[in-house]
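Researcher: I need the complex structure. Ligand is NAP. Inputs:
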Amino acid sequence: MDTSLRNVVILGSGCAGLTAAVYAARANLKPLVLEGHEPGGQLSITTLVENFPGFVEGIQGPELIENIKKQAARFGAEYHMGHVVSADFVKRPFVLDLGSVQIQTRTVIIASGASARWLGLPSEQALIGHGVSSCATCDGFFFNGKEITVIGGGDSAMEEALFLTRFATKVTIIHRRDVFRASKIMLDRARQHPKIEFLTDTTVDEVYDVNAKEVTGLKLHNLKTGKQWDFPTSAMFLGIGHEPNAKWVNGQLDTDADGYLLTKNNVFTRVPGVFACGDVQDRRYRQAISAAGSGCMAAMEAEKFLEEEGR
Ligand code: NAP
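Model: Output:
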């Protein structure tokens, strides 16, 4: 990788980062995209995207991402597999530390997204990859002909559950309340599916069986009655939302209590020249199209910033 001073470095290669790359590349800024921990972001592990404008029949998430990536590359965007360990936003040019190499840049676009949230139980953590997963698209196939559990009450949980009906004999959605955040259309689809059942007001206290290195069941807990019971299942898929990937910012930018970057006028952080877009700064909409929109804004503001600085 060329480590000479950059105009724009984009952190993250999801919908926001890649859209920023398209705009920055077309502005001839030769952006460098650091692909991050999860190249392609959340769209790369989803299935059919039905609500991105322009695709009458929908488009597969990974295909959409690959297309935007190629589109930006056509105009000169460069990609590097790596992620920022720490950054110095005090000095100018800014310094991004990737562990093995440091990059200097005049502007930074943070599009580092958000990652799947876990329950945090030791037994859950021990069984990740052995029946515990946050990606139905990636791991559903392994549970063909089995009974599967999905945790959560939002659109992610409904989407995972519906997808898993392709493989499972039964999918149980376990939600800690009896009110759902999921959109009506997704909830109705799940409710009407003959393979899907619901357990509400219920949480998971433990995942069995750590010793056997496979999921055999869950210890469940009804929050209203206090009843605890063992529930057999072959897999537990988490669909309980996401955490913003901004810990590495280390207090240099403003965040809310949950760690989402705070921005003004959509994409401005408190450091001039550092912009943020997509799910790392958006806890409200979190859609591919809103991420793309803010990626566009961040790139246009980076371009304007460089222009005003006389670059
Ligand atoms: P979300 O809407 O925030 O829902 C998270 C769910 O997980 C909530 O039901 C929450 O319960 C539950 N939860 C959170 N922490 C938990 C914990 N520690 N233990 C048990 N349950 C927990 O997140 P999301 O479903 O990932 O959706 C995020 C955004 O993406 C939304 O805007 C959604 O519409 C969008 N999305 C859209 C689609 C689609 O249209 N195809 C698909 C996926 C996502 P509480 O309700 O009790 O807080």
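Model: Summary of the prediction. The longest helix spans residues 288-308.
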